[in-house]
Each structure stands twice: as C-alpha cells, then as structure tokens.
Write a structure and sequence with these properties.
By secondary structure, this protein is mainly alpha-helical. The protein is built from 26 helices and 16 strands. The strands form seven sheets. A three-stranded antiparallel sheet has the order 8-7-9. Strands 11-15-16 form a three-stranded mixed sheet. Strand 15, helix 25 and strand 16 form a beta-alpha-beta unit. The longest helix has 54 residues. It is elongated and about 135 Å long. The protein starts with 15 loop residues before the first strand and ends with a helix. Pfam families: F-box-like (PF12937). It comes from Somion occarium. This is F-box domain-containing protein. InterPro entries: F-box-like_dom_sf, F-box_dom.
C-alpha cells in the first residue's frame, strides 16, 4: 500500500485558522495552524500621528484651538498622556475653545465637567451597553440609553397619594415606593432613585425640607438646560439634514449633466414632467442619492445602471410620443373620411379595419418628425371605395354560405333578395345576454352588428401598431363566425303564406295581403294576435314565447284585414315617433366617426337634439337624410297587433305585450260575439 503524501509545514497549502473571540482558546499554537487575523481597515496613512505626543506643548495648544469637542474626546482616549493632559481642570480652556467652534451650542452646565459634557452631547452611544447611534439624551440622569436598556435601568412607580408631588417634587413616600397596582406610572432611573432615597433617609427630619428645596432647584436647573440643548440639537439636526440634501442634490445635478452630455436631455425633461408628483426613477438608484460629491470613479461605478434606467425612460417617451402622434393622425383621418362616409352610407368598414390598410398605416404610423397633411389623407379616398367594396363582398359571400347551409337554393338566385335570407342572429348575444336566439338582425345591417365591434380582444402586443390601434379603438373587430342564418326558422312562415322560400323575394312578401296567427301555446283566451310575415319570423326566432314547442301558423280571414291595416298604421307611426324623439341612436353625418365605446356614448343623440346640433355646429337649418342617419346597429322589432275581448283584465304577468300595445293604441277591443263568429 502506497504511503500517503504529507504536506510540508509552512507550505502554501497549509491550513490557516481565523482567530475569533469564540475560538481563540481552541486554537493550538503549533506549526500546523497559522492564525489569520484580518487587519482593521483605516483611512489615511497608518502611524502618521504616533509622534504627536512628543510635539511641543505650544504647538499642541495651537492645534487644540481648531478642534471640536468630539475631536478632543477622541484624542483623550488615544493614550494616557493625552488623557492626563485633557481631563485636567487646567485644560478647560481647550474645551471651551472647542465648544465655540460649534455654532449655537449651550455652555457647559455647572453640574457637568467639560469632558463629560462633550461625551454626553457628541458621543452617541448607549452608556449601558455601548450600542452606537443613540440620539436621545436623558438629562435627568445625564446619560444615553437604547430601548432595551431603558427597560433595564428604569422602573415605574407612584402612589395615588404622591402623584401630584411626583410631578413637581421628585421625592415620593418611601413606604409607597413599589405601588405597581395603581393606574398611574412614572418612569424613574433605578440608581438615581436609590441614591435619592438613601440621601433622604440619612437626612435628619429637621433638614429634609431644606433638602427637598435644594434638590428641586437642581432638578429645575437640569430641565431648563435640557430644553436649551434640545432646541440646539433640533437646529443642528435640521442644518445637517439640509447639508446632506444639498450634497445629494449637487450629486444628482452632476449625474443629470453627464446624462445631458450623453444625449439624454429630452428623456430627462420627459421624466421630470412624468414624475412631477412621484419619485424620479434615478432617485431609486442607491448610488445616485449618496450624500457625497460625484467623482469620475463614482460615475463609472453607476454608469451602466443609470444608462439602463434612462434607456427605459427613452423607450417610454418614444412610445408615448408615438401614441400621441397616432391619436392625432386618426383624428385627421376621421375628418377626411366624412365626405366619403356621407356618400357610401352608414354601413361601411370599421375604423379599425381602415387603419390597418397598408396605405393608411404608412401615414398613421409615420415617424413623428414628419407629420402627414390633410392632402395626404384626401388622396386615400379612392382606396377607401375599393376597400369598402371588397369588405362588403367578403361579408356577403360569408353570409351567403351561411344561408345556403340552412336551406337549398338555386345557384342563379340572388340570395339577399330572398325573404328567407334576411334574418340572422349572433351566437355571442344569445349566450351572453339572454340564453336563447333573440338578438336577430336583418341584412345588410348585420354586417355592422354591434357584437362585431363591441370587442375586448387585444391579440397584438401593445407596443406594435396593431396593438395601439386595438387599444385606441376599443379592440379589434370580430369575424362573422359569431353569426348564423335563420333561414330554417323563416321557411315555415313563408310556407304558411303559400310561397316558395327558395324563390319569393322581400318585395313580393311585402306586397302580399296576408296576415298570420300563431296557433301555438302562446295564445290566450280573449286575445287574438295578428302578425305580418316579418313579425311572424321574429316570433319564431323568440321561440320561448311558445314554450318548448315550435309555433304553427294559420292565415287571418280576409274580412279582418281592414281593421288589421288600421292598427298596423298606428303601430308604424308609434314606431317612427319613438325613433324620432325617444331613442338616442341618431348620428351626425358631418362629424368624424369611429365606433369605440367613448365615441359611441358621446355622439349618439335623439333626432330633435341632433337637429339642434346641426344648426349650432354645422349651420344647417333644414337637415336632410344625408345630414343624419339612424344607427344601423340598432334593430327595432316589428310588433304584432291585437284584438282583445272587452272587459278582459290585462294582467301584466300574462298579457304584458298586449297591455303595452293597449297603451299605444295598437289594440282593437271587440265583443265576445266577435270571437264566436271567428270560431264559427
């Protein structure tokens, strides 16, 4: 077996042990261990003041005049000769000269020596455990204590009989010294109280009154001096805080100047405006807010971190400027689109879709240094016509496929001229709002159905052009995939009118002198409901009115159609009046238009308020249909009319629609014989 190789004693790889206060007794003083003692880091040249005690006294005295009390105190602690020199009573003049170097410092009180006064005022350590940075001076005991030592060297005691005396008279009754169970307590220094009580006991009874007066006078003198010292200390603390703040501000200004020299001037100005009511990002960097002058070395240490923060501020500034430029240009585009929209009508592509056109995005997202003019936007009008035509053709093709998937149609027929293909519904509305197929709309208004632009979809990152447009315009338009054709539900109604759903057009259905009555479970005794073919389709769509079953239809006898026509005319006039003066869905054709939520809630008006708007804002006294338009996204249902037996109680829980129609005058009240003749 090979011998193990041993390391030579004193070699470079020999183990060294660090000597601490806990293991100093365990370290062996042999050659196998080399204690490692870390030298204390001192500023300046080591040993440069070792010859100071040997200096002539006149030179030392001249030096002492320029020192402060804390300097003399530290000097007295360096060696015995200096201690003997500075704590002697004859050295009081040096301490007084040192005190004069401190502005506003009160004179040394009679109950303290000069070294003790300097130690109490300037050496901020706990006088019990030597913990540093203790700023509170307890003048009643002439010492500084940290909070843990306060609980150790103080106790609370008082008696109900001596509570008043303890405020002005520090000498309580010795028999009630430990009255812990009383609701009052005053903190008193243990050693001081013991000394006072001992002196009190040793004082003869006839001299105690004099002792009390003398002690009270000393205590008042102490408290008066404590008040003067506290005022000076607060003044000194404020001055020091101001000095530190000025140093930090100078350092920050130096950092700011270096950044401006590097080309970050605009970013600094933006940061000052942005964070005027908050914290500047640079002030969150610890090296920037240090209370020391900025040096070249200090700048090199913080340069990478500071430039990283400034690059982030620059990116934010450029993004904000880009957003402001895009918003400003979109407004110009909206003004340029007004004549074009008046020509093509309200059913046009969404603003979001127009903004994503390549020729439009090149102008909207151009560099902020080059601002597009109104002439640049006006040249896009031809492209808007082409894009609008392509957009409508794509929508019609998609909707046509939906209709043909529901009903077989000849290949040569115009799908959207047929009555069966007029109605669609949105799956999103049915699911989100009602839970049934209720939100129907007709062609071509379905191309701008509200669910297609009430979008909360933001697929692109917000720092891209698409993401910015999505956030400015309330999202991106949805596709037509959320729509479905209702041709299968319109077919039974058309067949009930003895027409071919694959051939009959809308105009032909309107020309028919036919009205229908539902024979489903929705009918009530004493109420006879008459539907047009459009109202019948809508009743079929809202299948909940007939319960779980599908409605079935029969023709209304011809002899009742004259009364039906009268009621339908009243209903039409009511519907027109409601659209004119009660519904805020009218828009101005002369104002720039977009279909985000903020614009929609701001721009919609009643017709009468819109007429007033045209008169005030556009100087149009007699507006025409070209000056205003009704929101194509809103769909007004075609309601039926009613024949109701006289005396029937229209309970709103059973006859809500009939009761509403009755208030609007869309009901004819008939005798019971009318219903008998109808059944006959």
């Amino acid at each position: 077996m090979a011998n193990k190789r041993t390391k030579a004693v004193g070699s470079r790889s020999a183990k060294r042990i660090k000597v601490t206060a806990n293991n100093v007794s365990k370290v062996k003083t042999n050659k196998d261990a080399q204690p490692l003692i870390q030298p204390r880091h001192l500023r300046g040249r080591r040993g440069s003041l070792r010859d100071m005690p040997a200096m002539p006294l006149d030179i030392l005295f001249e030096v002492f005049v320029y020192l402060e009390p804390m300097d003399l105190l530290n000097l007295a602690r360096t060696s015995k000769p200096f201690k003997q020199l500075l704590v002697d009573r004859t050295a009081a003049r040096f301490w007084r000269a040192a005190r004069e170097n401190i502005k506003g410092l009160p004179d040394c009180p009679s109950f303290l020596s000069e070294p003790a006064y300097a130690n109490l005022c300037f050496d901020a350590h706990c006088h019990n455990c030597l913990k540093p940075n203790i700023q509170t001076v307890h003048w009643e005991v002439k010492a500084r204590y940290c909070q843990p030592c306060m609980n150790e060297v103080y106790y609370c005691f008082v008696s109900p009989e001596s509570i008043d005396a303890y405020g002005d008279n520090p000498l309580p009754d010795p028999d009630n010294l430990l009255g812990w169970d009383v609701p009052y307590s005053i903190r008193r220094h243990k050693l001081s109280v013991k000394a006072i009580m001992e002196a009190w006991r040793q004082t003869p009874a006839e001299n105690r009154a004099e002792f009390r007066i003398e002690y009270t006078a000393r205590r008042k003198q102490l408290l008066a001096f404590a008040s003067d010292y506290e005022k000076w200390f607060e003044m000194r603390k404020k001055a020091r805080s101001k000095e530190i703040e000025e140093t930090r501000q100078d350092r920050f200004n130096s950092v700011e100047q270096r950044l401006r020299d590097l080309g970050y001037g605009e970013d600094l100005d933006y940061a000052c405006r942005l964070y005027r009511s908050g914290i500047h990002p640079l002030l969150k960097i610890p090296r920037v807010v240090q209370a020391r002058p900025l040096t070249t070395r200090g700048w090199k240490n913080m340069e990478a971190e500071v430039l990283g923060v400034m690059d982030g501020i620059r990116a934010t500034r450029l993004q904000k400027e880009r957003l402001a430029a895009i918003t400003r240009r979109i407004k110009k585009l909206g003004e340029a689109l007004v004549p074009w929209r008046r020509t093509v009508g309200p059913i046009t592509p969404y603003t979001q879709e127009l903004l994503l056109m390549p020729e439009v995005s090149s102008l909207i997202d151009a560099p902020t240094t080059s601002e597009p003019t109104e002439e640049d936007f006006s040249t896009l009008e031809k492209g808007f016509y082409n894009f609008s035509s392509q957009w409508r053709n794509r929508g019609c093709s998609k909707l046509s496929q939906m209709v043909r998937s529901k009903i077989a149609l000849p290949s040569d027929v115009d799908v959207f001229s047929l009555a069966v293909s007029q109605y669609f519904y949105c799956v999103r509305c049915a699911k989100v709002r009602y839970g049934y197929d209720s939100d129907a709309a007709t062609y071509p208004n379905i191309l701008v159905h509200r669910c297609l632009w009430e979008s909360r979809s933001f697929p692109a990152p917000e720092d891209t052009y698409e993401g910015i447009i999505a956030r400015l315009e309330g999202g991106v338009p949805r596709t037509l995939d959320t729509l479905q054709s209702l041709a299968d539900k319109a077919r039974p109604v058309i067949e009930a009118c003895d027409q071919d759903p694959a051939r009959v057009t809308v105009d032909e259905m309107d020309a028919l002198d036919i009205r229908l009555r539902c024979t489903g479970s929705c009918q009530e005794d004493g109420v006879y409901t008459v539907y047009t073919w459009c109202a019948a389709i809508e009743h079929t769509i809202c299948g909940y009115e007939c319960g779980t079953g599908q409605p079935s239809w029969e023709k209304v006898p011809l002899e009742y159609l004259a009364d039906v026509a009268t009621l339908e005319e009243i209903a039409r006039l009511n519907r027109e009046a409601r659209r004119m003066d009660f519904i805020e869905h009218w828009f101005c054709s002369h104002c720039p238009r977009t279909f985000n939520f903020k614009w929609y809630s701001y721009a919609k008006r009643t017709r009468s308020s819109l007429v007033e708007h045209l008169r005030k804002e556009h100087d149009i006294d007699n507006p025409t249909e070209l000056d205003m338009y009704y929101d194509p996204r809103q769909y007004d249902r075609v309601k039926p009319v009613y024949f109701i037996r006289k005396g029937l109680d229209l309970n709103p829980h059973r006859f809500l629609r009939a009761q509403t129609a009755s208030r609007m005058g869309e009901v004819k009240w008939v005798d019971a014989s009318w219903f008998d003749s109808l059944q006959a």
